[in-house]
Amino acid sequence: MVTAWNRFAETRKTQVAEYHLLKQPFTLDNNIITLTLTNPVEEPLLNSIKADLLTYLRNTLGNSLIQLNYIFAQQESRRMAYTNKEKFEALAEKNPLLKTFQEKFGLDPDF
After folding, report:
1. N or C: which terminus of the chain has fewer CB atoms within 10 Å of its end residue's CB?
2. Are residue 66 and residue 103 in the same domain, yes or no?
3. What is the domain range of residue 25?
4. Facing residues of 109 across strands?
């Protein structure tokens, strides 16, 4: 399966975006290939080559049951700390002792 997938990817080497998409990690479970997409822009690109890819894989492997699905990789989004208070809260999250020092010494992070 991996060899057939890589051969198809090599046929798309001139289309950089398609080649990059086909080089991303995937899993195979009970004839279902799951490709992990990192960006919503990749979805229409995958849909445009999906028929050719499935035809190639089914013919090469002699398995007409192969299906292709995709999932989006979870990406952590963090809010940037802009104010002094937000910066202090972010630091206090990493080191809770800062909160203790603030209370003990009566410090104001907005100053």
Report:
1. C
2. no
3. 2-72
4. none
* Residues 99, 67 share a domain: no
Same domain, 22 and 36: yes
Can you tell me the distance from the alpha carbon of 94 to that of 78, in angstroms, rounded to the nearest whole number? 14
**pTM across the whole model:** 0.64
The full DSSP string for 56-109 is: HHHHHHT-TT-EEEEEEPP----PPP-SHHHHHHHHHHH-THHHHHHHHHT--T
Walking along the chain (111 residues) 10 residues at a time, the average pLDDT comes out as: 92 91 90 90 92 94 93 74 84 90 84 61
Q: How far apart are CA 34 and CA 82, in angstroms?
A: 39
pLDDT score, position 73: 81
In angstroms, the CA 51 to CA 68 distance is 10
DSSP class of residue 27 equals E
Quote the tokens at residue 40. 């919503």
Cα separation, 51 vs 70, whole angstroms: 14
